[in-house]
């Protein structure tokens, strides 16, 4: 559950920063938020699997 929440937090922060830097482009901010959240989840899952061996 912590992995899921960490991914959401990373996505939200990056989406907010993208939104503020692009002058309010909601599409770009949403795309960045989703991409960063998924990458965070994959990165944590990879670290858990790789370190578990």
Say how many strands there are.
Answer: 0
Structure annotation, total helices: 2
Point out poorly predicted stretches: none
Strand content: under 5%
Helix content: over 70%
Mean of pLDDT: 83
For the largest beta-sheet, the strand count, sense and barrel status come to: none
Give a brief rundown of this model.
Helix content is 89%, strand content 0%. By secondary structure, the chain is mainly α.
What attributes does this structure have?
single chain; 0% strand; 53 residues; mainly alpha
Task: Characterise this structure.
The chain is an all-alpha fold. 89% of the residues lie in helices and 0% in strands. The protein has 2 helices and no strands. Helix 1 (2-21) runs antiparallel to helix 2.
What topology emerges from the helices and strands here?
Blueprint: H1 2-21, H2 26-52
Helix pairs in contact: 1-2
